[in-house]
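As noted in the main text, all predictions were made from sequence alone. Below is one such record, for terpene cyclase/mutase family member.
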Amino acid sequence: MPADIVGDTIEVDEQLYEAVDFLLTLQSENGGFSAWEPATSPQWMEMLNPTEVFGGVMVETEYVECTTSIIQALALVTHLHPEHRRKEIETSVAKEATHYVENAQMADGSWYGNWGICYTYAAYLVLRALAAVGKTRRNSEAVCIGCDFLLSKQLESGGWGESYLSCRNLVNLFTFN
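Prediction:
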């Protein structure tokens, strides 16, 4: 498109660095990442929710899905552009965000996912993110029990059959086991 319509060309590295800078601003004190802004509001604000249908909408919170996506993105940036905010990214990802997702793991090895069919989806995302920062079955208990959880739910066909009711009931329900 002509420059008079879209403006001057921006270098890819500049756009990438701006994206990284923005992502780092989303991290909450507990190491997790939220969707829109760092989670800073007190939980009691949920009592002010005027809706009867939607719970948990008044206060921004961290999400395993957002955190794991950002872990993977920042790990890749560090690999491809090691000169850009490397120390901050390593602290953010390797220590804080990784710690957040490991602590979010449930006793059965699963994680709760808010934006998908909960447990299978979240486990997949967390295991990919932990792998992106070098965590394996050999050096991470979270990876070991996360893999065990997924394998225990796998069907003979090779797929998984988690019910949509898992999200509503906050319990992992697998329909075809």
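The longest helix spans residues 86-103. The radius of gyration is 19 Å. These features were considered when defining construct boundaries for the mutagenesis experiments described in Section 2.9.
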